[in-house]
Design a protein that fits this description.
This protein is 33% helix and 25% strand. Strands 3-4-6-5 form a 4-stranded antiparallel beta sheet, covered by helices on one side. It has a 3-stranded antiparallel beta sheet with strand order 7-8-9, with no helix packed on it. It folds into 3 domains: 45 residues, no CATH class; 74 residues, 2-Layer Sandwich (Defensin A-like); 31 residues, no CATH class. With 168 residues, the protein is α+β, with helices and mostly antiparallel strands. 14% of the residues are buried. The chain is built from 5 helices and 9 strands. The protein is elongated and about 80 Å long.
């Protein structure tokens, strides 16, 4: 749009190949009515006024960790698994393997034997999301885990990529 306006002001416009690309030709600096500062000012005026902020649509909630005696409870574990679109058994298996601790799933709550801090659990869940949820090709969270023979794959619903991951 900017180039078309400028070409109309100059009066010369040439198409090369694709109609999307224009090459403006000015025979000499006398015929070219703009200097750099004017062109820059004009380009800034054509930019959108509002700064666009990228809104993250995929946000994993903080784990609600309660330590009672020698056991750690993650009270919103089922909610986290639903947002990740993963089976709670798979997420718990990964979590327990990384923590090197035994544990079970009781309803919506994960119970881990031993005292584990929220920060440690949060970092392990973030690592799970990076390795087993986010598509490595398009960086979208719209994926599913597929197991074929002894291999596991992330299949992206957004771009269709199929990437191998370490089995859990």
């Amino acid at each position: 749009m900017f180039y078309k306006d400028l070409a109309n002001d100059i009066g010369e416009e040439k198409f090369i190949g694709n109609a999307e690309f224009y090459i403006l030709v000015a025979m000499s600096s006398k015929e070219f009515p703009y200097n750099y500062e004017e062109l820059l000012e004009r380009a800034y005026k054509l930019l959108p006024k509002k700064v666009t902020v990228r809104v993250e649509r995929f946000k994993v909630p903080r784990p609600e960790v309660v330590i009672s005696g020698k056991r750690t409870f993650i009270q919103n574990f089922k909610q986290i698994c639903d947002i990740l679109n993963r089976d709670p058994k798979i997420v718990l298996r990964y979590l327990l393997r990384e923590l090197a601790a035994p544990g079970v799933l009781e309803g919506n709550t994960a119970v881990i034997m031993g005292e584990k801090s929220e920060r440690v659990i949060r970092s392990i869940i973030d690592r799970f999301v990076k390795d087993y949820v986010i598509c490595p090709v398009c960086k979208q969270p719209d994926t599913s885990l597929v197991k074929e023979k002894k291999m596991m794959f992330i299949v992206c619903m957004a771009c269709g990529a199929k990437s191998a991951v370490r089995p859990i």
